[in-house]
Fold this protein.
Amino acid sequence: MVIVSKILNTIPRPQLIKLSNWLRPIIALFLKGTKYTDPIDGKSYRKFLPYGYQKIRKNVLAPGTFSLERHRLFWIYLKNETDFFSATKKKVLHFAPEQAFFNQFKKIKKIDYTTTDLVSPLADVKADICNLPFKDNEFDYIFCNHVLEHIPDDNKAMSELFRVLAPNGIGIFQIPQDLSREFTFEDDSVTDPKERAIIFGQYDHVRVYGRDYFDKLREIGFNVAAIDYTKKLTKKEIDKYRLAQGELIPVCRKF
């Protein structure tokens, strides 16, 4: 299974999305069991797949949805702490839509769901996050997870997210974050993909966010809560759903 993980990490995202449509059901059937559960599709497995770019993490990639720890934590928070699944007439904007969520969100008939990205085959609207073709205050929910670390001008991207989020709306903007760092690190001179992978954690990342990430969002105008939702879960639940203890969810509001 480590070999499978390494192969998945080398495939460009658009091709991986297409490949996974037939690969996921096969792997899910092979690993079917009762020990671990993916809360996104509710299915259980005897183990999850390993996954990681620089460092392989064992037992983290759910076979049925290809969800990772952050996806499952996001889902549990969204289900337990927001009106996303029960609300009516809500407009939702989803950047770089994750496979784990795409089909699930499409099924919700009560929301107006729009996906956007520059290259993803799952995107309804091909758009640059720094120059969005949407009206001011248009969306009640915005999901932009593991995107900003790819964007050279993340301040401009954050400003656009703020602009199109409706007053009293909710934005969830997860990023890979090094909580041991006080300040975000970036170096524009690092352009080689291999060097970026070593320094920033992935070949197409342009920075490593520190604890100041939340303040960067606040400077744009967001009211930000850095929520450790694993504190609300038992150790048994954290292991059952294969979550990362202590991971923070940036929940942004516009008042």
